[in-house]
Amino acid sequence: MRSVTDVRETETAEPERARIRAGDRAAFGELYDRHARAVYNHALRLTGNWAEAEEAMSETFLAAWRTRESVDPEGGSLKPWLLGIATHKAYNANRGLRRRLAFLARSPEPRPVEDFAEETAGRIDDARRLALVHRALGRLKRQDREVFALCVSAGLDYQQAAEALGVPVGTVRSRLSRARARLARLSAEAEPPPAHGEMESEAALAALFLREETR
């Protein structure tokens, strides 16, 4: 069942598409306000890094503005289009991060710096949790991870995810089924949580994370 938001977006999609294609800056600003959080959250789930997610979000909307004339005049919400761009930007961000990490691994050890533990203590748990989630999703194949993030996290249906990725609906279905089966196996193989009740299972953390907004 579609939400009220989905229905409203469908009702206004065609005039919005025309305005976006025409370079209407006000319409593009409205598009940003409506979908920036979803784009950021999607990028965060794929990159596992707040800074990389911010960069991917910025690049997504920049690319969307530059390629606005490619938007199909007819169709529903532009959210799948934006998330499709974000998927590619997140992948590029991950590649860039790997290159930087490889460079740092070859560099001399940095000098000791001042301890900022008190200032960052409030973010340690979030960072650890995000790392575990990203590690769990990282065990999926790239294509399966992207479909899982689009359908389960971002809430796109099969047709919208297919539009975002430029693949057939059947491909989306098979990739999502494979991703769910893989995470189910991870969850079944995971060790029981510690006595104090913290969720340590990567798969369990992934499931929890995917149900929440992160910004």
Automatic annotation (TrEMBL):
Report the InterPro entries cross-referenced here: RNA_pol_sigma-70-like (IPR039425), RNA_pol_sigma-70_dom (IPR014284), RNA_pol_sigma70_r2 (IPR007627), RNA_pol_sigma70_r4_t2 (IPR013249), RNA_pol_sigma_r2 (IPR013325), RNA_pol_sigma_r3/r4-like (IPR013324), WH-like_DNA-bd_sf (IPR036388)
Q: Share an example GO biological-process annotation for this protein.
A: DNA-templated transcription initiation
| RNA polymerase sigma factor 70 region 4 type domain ranges (all copies) | 132-183
Q: Where is the RNA polymerase sigma-70 region domain?
A: 31-99
Keywords assigned: Sigma factor, Transcription, Transcription regulation
The Gene Ontology terms for molecular function here are:
DNA binding; sigma factor activity
The domain of life for this entry's organism is Bacteria
A Pfam family this chain is assigned to:
Sigma70_r4_2
Cross-referenced PANTHER family, in alphabetical order? Answer: RNA POLYMERASE ECF-TYPE SIGMA FACTO, RNA POLYMERASE SIGMA FACTOR RFAY-RELATED
Q: Which NCBIfam families match?
A: sigma70-ECF
Family per record: Belongs to the sigma-70 factor family. ECF subfamily.
What protein name applies here?
A: RNA polymerase
Species this chain originates from = Streptomyces pseudovenezuelae
